[in-house]
Design a protein that fits this description.
about 65% helix; mainly alpha; 13 helices
């Protein structure tokens, strides 16, 4: 959507080993899930009937990640733009990417309806501090865990842009990215405010080793970071 090219088979060719190991990993992990967690828990999570070991609820983990998923539609273009500018890659609007964005939007609403039998939850979760707090953790974790690896695999096949051409990047695109960044920051600020004012320590997990039965904000963020690294 930002590089002015259609999908290049070079990417698939140069990253064939990476894709192969990803397929092997999934072939191992998916069948092994029931042996670790049991069939009941495994299929409850797959059917989105369960959010954690103790919490059964309609919509499951899909609903838990709804707030972060909605803001990711704003964050991913901003993050990609900043990284490509930083490493001197070409950034040009390309309507061919709109197909994938449209598929993402449609899939988002379809899956939300499928798991909840309504889409009212899209609005209701913005009032639940537990959902919003989890969203903040996701949004602060993804940029330093999930995003860098696929971006590296994509960018290493692109050529750097010369200084003169780099200065001529599309002005309208910069305005568009700036607007997305502003809306994202507003959403993230709202989620953070609700989470902190409602007392995130009261809605987070409270293990026995936690002092006073509560975990601090930094611990919650750090543990989530390492959770996604493992």
């Amino acid at each position: 959507m930002f590089d002015g090219r259609k999908f290049n088979p070079y990417w698939k060719k140069e990253n064939s080993d990476t894709l192969y190991f990803a397929y092997v990993f999934l072939d191992f992990v998916i069948p092994s899930k029931p042996s670790f967690f049991g069939y009941e828990d495994t299929f409850a999570f797959i059917a989105q009937k369960k959010q954690s070991v103790k919490i059964y609820t309609e919509g499951g983990s899909w609903n838990l990640h709804l707030p972060s998923t909605m803001l990711l539609f704003l964050l991913i273009p901003v993050y990609t733009y900043i990284v490509k500018r930083t490493f001197g890659r070409s950034i040009e609007p390309n309507v061919s990417g709109l197909l994938y964005v449209s598929v993402g939007f449609i899939s988002f609403f379809l899956f939300t309806f499928f798991f909840n039998r309504n889409i009212d939850v899209i609005f209701l979760i913005w009032e639940d501090p537990r959902y919003l707090a989890h969203s903040v953790r996701e949004l602060l974790t993804f940029p330093v865990t999930y995003f860098p690896i696929p971006l590296y695999l994509i960018l290493r096949g692109e050529k750097t842009v010369g200084g003169s051409r780099k200065k001529k990047q599309n002005r309208h695109l910069r305005y568009f990215i700036t607007c997305l960044a502003i809306f994202f920051l507003i959403g993230l600020s709202y989620q953070s405010y609700i989470s902190l004012t409602e007392g995130i320590g009261n809605v987070a997990q409270q293990p026995d080793f936690a002092k006073g039965g509560k975990l601090g904000v930094l611990y919650l963020l750090a543990s989530h970071y390492f959770e996604h690294l493992s």
